[in-house]
Amino acid sequence: MGVEGNAVVYRWTLPRLPSKELSPNFRGHWSRTHRAMQMDKSDSYAYFLQAHPRPDSPLDKAKVTVTIYRRTRQRLDPDNWGARMKGYWDGLVQAGLLQDDSVAVIGQPRYIFVVDPKRAGQWGLVEFEVEAL
Question: The pTM is what?
């Protein structure tokens, strides 16, 4: 957690991309989607609490920037990425950072996509920046 001016800013990294099973285009069995959601939620919870102490109270309003590092220039649909992030948002609510993952709290998160094979590593990388408003 850092303080920039009067704003409190949380930054941390999750060392993999959100599960592809959470994409609206996934056509597998529901149990795979359920397992992927649980894994994403627990990873998000754990990596946030590894980087920051649990906040005294959740944020009622936040500005969110998510930088997604990928290995390839494969074309992507930003709407699908928003859906794939659902488990990560739920983990941050569980960790006590956010009141909930509604538009009233996180607005429209800003997604930045970067192709950087070295930074992305084998599994991709997601950097979060959440600023308290």
Answer: 0.90
